[in-house]
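Risk register update: the risk of archive-format incompatibility is retired. Evidence:
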Amino acid sequence: MASRRTVSVGRVKIGGGNPVIVQSMTKTDTSDTGRTAAQINRLESAGCEIARSAVPDMNAAKAFGRIKKRVRIPLVADIHFNYRLALEAIDRGADKIRINPGNISSEQRLREVVLSAGRAGIPIRIGINSGSIRKVKGIRQSAPLAERMAETAAHYVKLFGCWGFEDVVISVKTTGVRSTADACRILAGKTDNPLHVGITEAGPPGSGTVKSALGIGMLLMEGIGDTIRVSLTAQPEEEVRTAWQILSAAGVRSRGLDIISCPTCSRCRPGFMKIAGEFEKKASGVFRDGGPRGLKVAIMGCEVNGPGEAKHADVGIAGGRKSGLLFRKGRVVRKVRPDRWVGSLISEIKKIQGKT
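Archived output:
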């Protein structure tokens, strides 16, 4: 079910067996070149590989050229309704266009956008969302939502092909996990084009992360999905961090540290939760590139969960009331006072990082 076709977005390749790519979307005013470029560069530092910016008006479309000069990762123009905005963004150097064909006012104007992208040599993402599905002749309107979305996306892929354009990425998203997953499964059986997956408008970080992890993670483990975006009501860097956590948990890709910590109980030393949280926060600041990829770090609050149960970890702390054991690969390195747990782990990780 994994896509066989490869689509290039700038220097990034999607589909065809390439790694699953992490995307996010800027939340600045796109016409504010400085703030938008700065946010994209922060996203890149967080692990974002493709950035998308909304194009609500002509000022935003014209800003694309200026933004591109100040960023390194590919930049995608997100277009709705006004086909002229797509044409302008293409002329200004957008690396990809994302459109919902159903809200472009006519097939003639849609064709103009497609042909313009073809001349520029850039791909298009056909994005079908549950809230904006246009009626298409031959598609049964009484069919389940997932089926209608997949059929609509497949219709536009075929239409674009008739116009000589095949450089297409597809997404079918709803706000629900089950309907999104069903639509993606149906579509994966109909096309070899790369699929972009995510739960649209998932919500704030708490509930939105749960929905995104369930929906995206489930599809990835079924071999569906070539690029992902986590849609949270939060800063975009949070979307990127969550996306990488999902990829890591699904066993698809890893970036940085894999933190393992016990859930705590009455055996744990007092303040253990605070220590675990402090380590995660400090590590994200110290290792801005994520740290050694896939390194497993265990933080265990008592002798029951570590180092025995955590012996598969590369490095960790097993806590006690008055001290903790710093260990690597299950072998004790030394005893550490509780107030030095975080610093000792950071130092040990740096030693490992120096050898990789």
